[in-house]
Amino acid sequence: MEITLSLFGTATTVSDSTGLSVEGLVTSFNAATPWQLSLPASGVFGLTGPSGSGKSTLLAALAGQRRCRGKISFANTVWQCGRRALSTHKRALSLGFQDSCLFAGQSVADNLALARRYSRRPVPGEECDQLLKAFGIAPLLHQPVELLSGGEAQRVALLRQLFHNAPLQLFDEPLSAVQRTQVLRCLLPTLRDFWARYPALVIWTSHDFDEIQLLAQRCLWMDAADLSAPLTLPEVARHLDTQGVGDSCRSRIEARVESLQESLLTLDLGGIALYADRVAGHYRKGDTAAFLLEAGDISLSAERPGLSSMLNCLPVMLAAKLHLADGRIRLQLTAAGQVLYADISRLSCERLQLRDGATYFAQFKAGSLAGL
Ligand SMILES: Nc1ncnc2c1ncn2[C@@H]1O[C@H](COP(=O)(O)OP(=O)(O)OP(=O)(O)O)[C@@H](O)[C@H]1O
């Protein structure tokens, strides 16, 4: 079904969609690959792809901050038709950048109050108080924004966007300066919970695929100005693997070199022997060597396993569980003061009856340790 709307006094026909509809959107950057996109009125969608591929340009065009032509409509309102465009402040959206863009000369509290005052869907005060606490912003409320660190400023800017609670929320690497553990363990779970209770259409741009996995169930992929339709997370992971970009979840492990025989390296991690196969480079006994280990390469047992073709068996302590958007569970484990991540299914998690603080056995193949 199609409906007719009036934009600047001229009748315009758009698809009857309450979500976001983009048809043939062209900027000076993507003249050869017009963008098409159709997203529902609510839901969290990741946006990732190689650097310089056009992600920020797309967000700027959606927000009316980049000259473009084509059609954009959201919630049955036409924002762009041909070269005619509705100005940014008339679009029901908010846009958050890596550079926090807070209002200078004002306190944190003033910045946040403005967002609520100009919101058409203000978030209840109680909710705001909880968000202030979860984001660690409460002690900073009376600070002038010029005195905030980069990570603090980003957290305030993100909070300002939540307080404003626009129907379409665009984010461009909004947490790149915030400590990763705080992002993964506190901020992303808070955001997921917030958007479950205050639905909006969210497009979250990041190079950190773990962030996207924790927030979104679908993700857009941009490569050389070519925009995909929403993909599943495994589909995007395959793109990332092929391109060698992005950041799937890998742990960095450091261990002391014991011996190298043929291509099998024997290591010592806190008194436990580890083995790395097919490693390149020169290793000398006593050196500290670093390796990467994919979260998906680890299997976990509640009891010490018997003989196995998996050469590595490391006792680990479960520090935390993170629920990934695709239903899997990411476990944060510690061993000899180092942090490892393991991705397992919800069923495995239930069967193992995992408890924080308990000891388990992480198994992985010698070939899974990639030397740095
Ligand atoms: N204001 C501008 N003027 C001219 N070219 C620009 C401008 N902004 C970006 N570009 C160019 O447009 C292309 C796309 O940039 P864009 O910032 O959209 O990419 P991106 O995918 O967001 O990259 P990143 O992941 O590195 O942030 C790049 O080649 C960039 O150099």
UniProtKB/TrEMBL annotation:
Mop domain location: 307-372
Q: State the PROSITE patterns in the record.
A: ABC_TRANSPORTER_1, ABC_TRANSPORTER_2, MOP
Q: Which domain of life is it from?
A: Bacteria
Q: Which UniProt keywords apply?
A: ATP-binding, Molybdenum, Nucleotide-binding, Transport
Q: What is this protein called?
A: ATP-binding cassette domain-containing protein
Molecular function (GO) terms listed? Answer: ATP binding
Q: Where does the ABC transporter domain lie? A: 12-249
Please give the InterPro entries that the UniProt record associates with this protein: AAA+_ATPase (IPR003593), ABC_transporter-like_ATP-bd (IPR003439), ABC_transporter-like_CS (IPR017871), Mo/tungstate-bd_C_term_dom (IPR008995), Molybdenum_import_ModC (IPR050334), Mop_domain (IPR004606), P-loop_NTPase (IPR027417)
Organism this protein belongs to: Microbulbifer spongiae
